[in-house]
Write a structure and sequence with these properties.
102 residues, mainly alpha, two-stranded antiparallel ribbon, 4% strand
Amino acid sequence: MHMLGKHEPERAPRVRISPPPQLRFCYNYWTINMETYFFIQQNLWILILLAIWSIPWKGWALWKAARANDKKWFIALLVVNTIAILEIYYIFVLGKKRKTVR
């Protein structure tokens, strides 16, 4: 339309363009993070119980690894979180083997 001798620029037709793969990944990543957040929010008591269960085992296994001067096992036990499975294995299986060998 003409208004005082000026006209509006022509608008391009709207075309739906699919986002590039990088943006689709970001959307999927955000969706997964929100699902994880909601899961944690709804099941916080389970995570608290798992922490209460695994912290004493981790402390005992780290103490035994330090006393036995097992640097590799100490680092592995410190870094890897297996809900106390690896710690219990180290305490009762490898700890007993190391006592009988020495």
